[in-house]
Amino acid sequence: MMTTQDKELLAKKNISEAQIADQLACFQKGFPYLKLDAAAAVGKGILVPGPDEQRTYLSAWDAYTRTDKTIVKFVPASGAASRMFKDLFEFLGAGYEAPATKFEQLFFENIRKFAFYDDLDAACLRMVGKNIATLLA
Fold it and tell me: Quick one: which of 29, 39, 119, 123 could link to 86 by a disulfide (CB 3.0–4.6 Å)?
């Protein structure tokens, strides 16, 4: 139930009650899984600015740092997850099934130590009908 304060805040942010109801419904029913094609890389969504663009951006940044603004670090979750799981995404798209790289071998050798192992094991059973031990074998 929305309070008067909630409604005032939504109005300040130009969010209608219908919009917030739609957003809350998304959290209740869940969000679909995103099927990634590949990890982000140069040529796959990552652009590399040329020397002139770099100078322009660095100049703008230097000017900004000389203002009274507060600078904070922000790492969007989707980008962080893409980088964090880059090696695993590459393994999923590889043309082989057995871990081949050092990362892949280390990951699967230590998978039983992961804090989320039981949840992952249950998800594997639910999604592919096999537990982690069977999949590793």
Answer: 39
